[in-house]
Amino acid sequence: MSETVTQPLTAPPLTAMFGGTFDPIHYGHIKPVIALAKLVGLKRVTLLPNNVPPHRPQPEASAQQRLAMVQMALADIGGSLFDIDDRELRRDNPSWTVDTFETLRRERGRTAPLGFIIGQDSLLTLPQWHRGLELLDKCHLLVCARPGYGAKMSTPALQSWLEARLTTDVGQLQTKPAGLIYLAPTPQLSISASLIRERRHEGLRCDDMLTPSVQRYIDEQGLYL
């Protein structure tokens, strides 16, 4: 007699990953993601610090310092929305995002809704990432607005690719495992890690851009001087 396989009655809730070098982590990272979580009903966002980002200059702070700052920022804001996955920091090779999401998909299973939070600037450059367009096979893209960036891709073919995957229905994000792009009307904060580093290099304070513990840690460690 054949075995009966019982399917789950409901899909697990949508969870999302938010990657970055976090050199340092700042309010421009945190506040838009909190707003995004409210828009789409996220109960958990996992911060994924990068070790060796292949598409950009290498971080000034060490992996250990950047992880410490992420931990401090989350302690400052409190709540249960965020957690941390440090798997990429434990790699010696470049952090290819698609490789990480292939692993995550194997861990979560084929049907679990999974999102990847990126900024509008990253969406526009996604075709230049290593196997960047394949990410939609593994997850949804949850896109935060960024000051100064439009919504048009670089070619008509890429714009058609985008439009075929756009959704404004957050219910689909919660029920489908992958394949959709959601452009979130999140707050556009003119804060960046590069701006913070530049201000530090010039001897200027950044208290309104960083959580208190992160600002103190940067001062104590003498970072970005």
Characterization of the model:
A six-stranded parallel sheet has the order 3-2-1-4-5-6. The radius of gyration is 18 Å and the shape is globular. The chain has helices at about 25-40, 65-75, 95-110, 120-125, 155-165, 170-175, 195-200, 210-220; strands at about 15-20, 45-50, 80-85, 115-120, 140-145, 180-185. About 35% of the residues lie in helices and about 15% in strands.
H/E series? EHEHEHEHEHHEHH
Approximate helicity band:
25-40%
| Total count of strands | 6
Q: Just name the CATH architecture.
A: 3-Layer(aba) Sandwich
CATH-level-4 superfamily name: HUPs
CATH class: Alpha Beta
Rg is 18 Å
CATH topology name: Rossmann fold
| Separation of the first and last Cα atoms | 71 Å
Number of domains: 1
Estimated share of beta-strand residues: 5-15%
Biggest pleated sheet: 6 strands, parallel
Structural class: alpha/beta
In short:
The chain is α/β, with parallel strands linked by helices. It has helices at residues 27-40, 63-77, 97-108, 120-125, 156-163, 170-175, 193-201, 212-221; strands at 15-20, 45-49, 82-84, 114-119, 140-144, 181-184. A 6-stranded parallel β-sheet has the order 3-2-1-4-5-6.
